[in-house]
Amino acid sequence: MEAKDPEEVKETAEAAAADAAAPAEDTAAEEGSIVIGTDEDVKSTAKVIRKESTKVAVVLTEEVKEEGVEIDEADQSGATGEAHDDFNWNMTARSAASRYSAEERTAMEKQYEDSMTNISESEIMSAKVSSIIDGDVILDLNYKSDGLLPLSEFRDQAELQVGDTVEVYVEQQEDEKGQLVLSRRKAKLLRAWDRIRDSYANGTVINGKVISKTKGGLIADCGGLETFLPGSQIDIKPIVDYDAYVGKTMEFKVVKINETIKNAVVSHKALIESDLAEQREAIIASLERGQVLEGIVKNITDFGAFLDLGGVDGLLYITDISWGRINHPSDVLELNQKVNVAVLDFDENKKRISLGLKQLQKHPWEVLDETIGEGSTVEGKVVNIEDYGAFLEIQPGVEGLVHVSEVSWSNQPINAREYFTVGETKSAKVVTIDREDRKMSLSIKQLATDPWERIRENFDLESVHTGKVKNLTPYGVFVELDEGIGGMIHISDLSWTKRFGHPSEFTKVGADIQVMVLEVDEENRKMSLGHKQLEENPWETFENVFPEGSYHEATVLRKDDRGAIVQMPYGLEAYAPIKLMRKEDGTIADVDETLTVKVIEFDRDSKRLTVSHSRYVNDIRKEAKDQVYKEQAEERDNTRKVLKKTSASIERSTLGDLSAFEQLREQLSNNDDEK
To answer: Which UniProt keywords are given for this protein, alphabetically ordered (predicted)?
Structure first.
């Protein structure tokens, strides 16, 4: 409720006194009534209570009340002693006020004004809760009127009570109804922004409550103002579960602000780092090589693990975790695991600390059982495979190499990656051991008897055996006849009649094949085998069947840019240069096409037969020409004979005619003579 201004009270009182002195007003007064002023005078000198809706304001003007008492005491001399006779009923407010001089009235007015608080708009002020009525809070700012705010604006204060002091923002000194307009929310936001700016400028710490999760981080309420907490600024260690922080109250430091939109980015990690900075310096200053520290595994990578040493991080490389081989640090370590580690090295400038776990134990070679020596049998797990062999781990940190040459007694090439499997267990014999250099060579084949010691007894020359194809190469087939015993069939010894570009055209790995022992080299542990030798050599017969110049039907099996392989009778394969496979129409014979060829070369020693279709075509053409020439010659001879015979008959006829004419001539001559 707005209180009356002192000047207005004075002017109203004077006007009321003047009106009371007027005759019209005196005549209007009835007997027994007391006129002390108008209605305005009464309102200005009494308590004013205005209730508007649920708003209550009370204004007391003690000055006028006190003046009335002074007037009452001053007029006691004329009292009759009866009730009410000691009061001057003709006194008015103007006559009472006239007892003060202008200077006194000015001083009193100034005193009244000084008792009020100066309020400016857009200002944050402290107010006292005077009462709480029907969901509204009445605030006393020591101003001429009280403020009114809904109780909902104080929901951040669990128990708001009368007498509490709160901060409010003055939006307007008077609205359309003359009321003071305040805002609790704006005051909170402005105060929160001031704290955020102070934290950004001076590095002070603010509190906030995480209210929700958003993309890339969290939203924190810092005194009523929402701020962004990036995921990378939550903690010094990577955070996966953001939901675990929702609802927590945390301390922050402001790292970025935007004055235009009143937005801020906060960090909890910065506080942790600042706290750890001093600890880190102290720890690094006290570090010594070989010192044993306790750390907590905070992160595990492919190359090692990072340990928190109490404010400073150290790196434990995978090679320093165990004396034995491990595939990944997680095979030995777990997150948040406490472990004791030794300081191997550190760099004060770069704040890098290298740690070791295996160094806290003696090297396994130093405590290796003395019974393990040359000739002893050991059992180990395959931990690494290379092209040249495999490493067996006898015990963590102690390994031996099984070279591919020590896998089998056979000279057949061994593929270590096919023979060994990581993780499997193998038994081997110790061939050499060097405890100082920490090296050991192992052998698997020496656990068995050398089969080459009795090779002649079991695999004599020209003996026939059945073996298994173990490997194929471009030049031959490796066949295993017994454990550790094997030999090679050269590609030329696979068949008498066929030529193969690769042994895979004849057989495959794992297939059984029958062979004949052709040669045994005990010193070099080699054996030559043959497959075609199981049959008689047909080339002695082929020499009579396929003489040079003979013609045969052949089918094209395959061809390339240089020549073609054709199938001859009796399964024999022959070679034909590509230019000699041109047909009569000028095209080259295709695969699976059957045509007649001419044998142009037969080499029994090298088992080579060369044929040509073009030569056959040429021979046919030549033969046709020769036939034509022969027929033409015979025709010429016949013609010549006919002509000769005809000529002879013509000649005989001609001579006869001449003889007759001669006789006739002689007869005529004789007749003439007679005449």
So the answer is: Repeat, Ribonucleoprotein, Ribosomal protein, RNA-binding
